[in-house]
Design brief:
This protein is mainly beta. The protein contains three helices and 18 strands. The strands form four sheets. The protein has an eight-stranded antiparallel sheet with strand order 5-4-1-2-3-7-6-18, with no helix packed on it. Strands 8-11-12-15-14-13 form a six-stranded antiparallel barrel. Strand 2 and strand 3 form a beta hairpin. It is globular. The termini are close together. One of its GO terms (biological process) is proteolysis. It comes from Xenopus tropicalis.
Length: 288
């Protein structure tokens, strides 16, 4: 592959982000593993990163739309994509993956950017970008997400949600699931009776100390979305990275913090424009 190092600074990639045209009221829910299906268009920046299996396409990871050309996901999700990139696709605007209606748009991968310091063993710096082969058209069902400014105090945000097509009743679900979670103090999450030093500065913990709604296998790369209760716009504050036993005590999901990593914006090459930059990155262009 070819390396290209990038730099600059900003907080969002689109002049209007975090818009949810179809959402009027959003109620707090306490299920994800048990299953709670959101209304259509509830999280219009959700992306399903899919691979072609023997029985058809299936969601391998989640992702978050940042602009009409870029999706952010977890770096560890690229492991299979690198080997089977010709079998991969990105689905946007979907809720039920078995019924892709006219509101959905499908793209393939043009290139990807992976954090150059990503550690496969510890999942430190577990964040990456995917450039779509063709820009998506924004609609009621497809909108770019907002990222939090580096100066924001995420722990003051007390209305947090997760969403994804991950494991549900020991099977990957084809219907988008959502749940309300709580941010967990990093020091508490890193204590000896919890993750015992496995939480890094670039991580967030969310879920419930005694177990409950949580992300699970297949949710990697998806968003942790938070805001203050009286605010109108959710920020994607974290990207699903790893966790313990889904929904069990002291086994909550661990996320790559967007406010820690997403502090730079760049103009990569002519025609791409401004995209998210997460510290020094390696630009992987295996088939441009």
């Amino acid at each position: 592959y070819r390396k290209q190092y990038l730099s600059a600074s900003c907080y969002c990639l689109h002049s209007a982000c975090g818009i949810r045209p179809l959402v009027k009221n959003h109620h707090r829910v306490r299920r994800v593993i048990e299953g709670n299906t959101p209304e259509p268009g509830s999280w219009p920046w959700m992306a399903s990163i899919q691979l072609l299996y023997k029985d058809g396409y299936g969601s391998a990871c989640g992702g978050v739309l940042l602009s009409n050309r870029w999706v952010v996901t977890a770096a560890h999700c690229l492991s299979d994509l690198k080997r089977y990139r010709h079998l991969a696709r990105i689905v946007l605007g979907a809720r039920d993956l078995t019924q892709l209606g006219p509101e959905t748009q499908i793209r393939t991968i043009k290139q990807w950017i992976q954090h150059e310091d990503f550690d496969h063993k510890t999942h430190k710096n577990d964040i990456a970008l995917i450039r779509l082969n063709y820009p998506v058209k924004f609609s009621d069902y497809i909108q770019p997400a907002c990222l939090p400014p580096k100066s924001s105090n995420v722990y003051k945000m007390d209305d947090c949600h997760i969403a994804g097509w991950g494991l549900l009743n020991e099977k990957l679900t084809t219907m988008l699931q959502e749940a309300t979670v709580e941010l967990i103090d990093r020091k508490r999450c890193n204590s000896s009776d919890w993750y015992n030093g496995g939480i890094h500065d670039d991580n967030l913990c969310a879920g419930y100390e005694q177990g409950g709604p949580d992300v699970c296998m297949g949710d990697s790369g998806g968003p942790l979305m938070c805001k203050r209760k009286k605010a109108g716009i959710y920020y994607v504050v974290g990207i699903v990275s790893w966790g313990g036993l889904c929904g069990q005590p002291h086994s909550n999901g661990v996320y790559t913090s967007c406010s820690y990593c997403a502090v730079h914006v760049l103009s990569a090459v002519q025609g791409i424009g401004y995209i998210l930059q997460v510290f020094p990155l390696v630009l992987l262009m295996p088939y441009l």
